[in-house]
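Before relying on records like the one below, remember that each one covers exactly one chain. Contacts with other chains, cofactors or solvent are not represented anywhere in the record.
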Amino acid sequence: MFTIKKGTRRGRAVAALAVAALSAVALSACSSGSTGTGGSASDLDSALKKGGDLTYWTWTPSGQAQADAFMKEYPKVKVKVVNAGTATAEYTKLQNAIKAGSGAPDVAQIEYYALQQFALSDGLRDLNSYGLGDLQGKYTASTWSAVNIDKGLYGLPQDSGPMVLLYNKAVFDQYGLTVPKTWDEYIADAAKLHQADPSKFITNDAGDPGYAQPLIWQAGGHPYKTNGSNVTINLQDEGTKKWADTWNKLVEPGLVSPIPTWSDDWFKALNNGTLSTIVTGAWMPGIMESSVKDGAGNWRVAPLPSYDGSPITSENGGSAQSVTKQSKNPALAAAFLRWLNSSDSSIDVFLKSGGFPSTTAQLNADSFLNEAPSYFGGQQINKVLVDASKNVAKGWEYLPFQVYANSVFADTVGKSYAAKSDLNAGLKAWQDNLSAYGNSQGFTVNK
C-alpha cells in the first residue's frame, strides 16, 4: 500500500540512524549467507491446529479486519494487531528490535523497497523452508521478484502499485488536451495548459524518491546492483539520464507545481482542478474516492506515458508481510502469513478496503475487471490497472540501504528541483552521498 511520508529533517535523521545500525549488521549477513532455515510445509497445518499467540505489525487499513477473519476461521490462534507506524517509523522500531535481540513482532509489513535491508540484516526467516515458494504462481511476476532476495523468500506479496496516469477529464476537455501516450506528448500538454492558465499545472513534483525512482525504472534505468557486500551505484546510467533529461523539460521551465505530495494543498489542488494529472500507483483510485470528493465524475485512468508509446511501466509502492527470526512460533506465523496473502477470504477483505492485489486470480476475476466506479465516470478502471501490472519492466533492484538513500534525496536531488536546475547535477550529488555512506558502513561501493 502507499505510504504518506513526512519529509522532515528529523525524520530523515531518524532514518539515517536506524539504517546505520542496519547496515553494520547487513554485512555479516551478506558474508554468512544466512537464510533462517527450519520447519516444513506440513508444520504450518500442525501449527494452526495447535494454536497460539501472534503479534502482527501493519499499517494497512484492512489489517484488523483480516486478523478478525483469520481468528474466526482458526479460533485457537490469537493475533494482536499493532500499528507501529508507517514506513520509516515502523522500520526504525523493527531495526532497533533486531539489534536488541528482542521486541520484534512475529509478522511485519515491509515495503518492497525496504525488504532487502531487513533480509540482509538476518532479521527475517526464509519462507522457502516452509514450502511457501510453491505459491509463486499466485502472484504477479514483479511482486514475486521483489520478495525473492539472494535465493531466499523473505515475504509474501500483499499489494502492488503498477504505475498509471490519473487525469482530470473535465480539465483536459476544457483546454483541448489529449491523453498523452508518450512523455513528449505529456510535456506538450503541460506547456499548453500552463500557458492557457498559469494557475494550473499538469502535475506536481517537489522532489520525491518514491516518485523519481519508478520513473527511472520505467526508462530502463538500473542504477543499483548488489552482490553480497559489493554495491554498484550509477545514477547516470542510460535509463536514469533519459528520465532526468526528460523531466528537466518540466522542472526547469516551471511546468510542474512545487506543492508537496500528500500535503493539504495537494489535496486541495486535486479537488479544484489546479492539478490535472497524477503519475502514481494502482492503489491511488481508492484514495481519490475518499479524499478528493470534489473530483467525482471528472477523473479517469490511463496507461502511463512512455518514451515510445509502448505500454511499459514500473511499480510505485506495494508491500509484503514477513516472518521475523525473533518469532517464538515461526511455523504459526508462516501459516498466518500464508492465509493472509494467499487465501481468497483474506484477500476479499483487503479488496473491500480499496487495496490493489498482487494475486493474479483476483486481478483476472471478471467481478474485479468489470467494476465501473461512478467516481471515474463509469470507466472500468481495473482493466487499465491490470494491464499495467502485466507490463512492468523487469530487472529493477533497490539498494541494501534504500531507506537511508530515500531520506537524503531531498538534500541532494531536491535542491535541483527547488532551483529549477538540471536534475543530473542533483543525481550526481545523491550518488556521491550514497557512495560515501555505503563505504562508511563497510560496503564496497563501485561507480
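The first strand starts at residue 52 and ends at 57.
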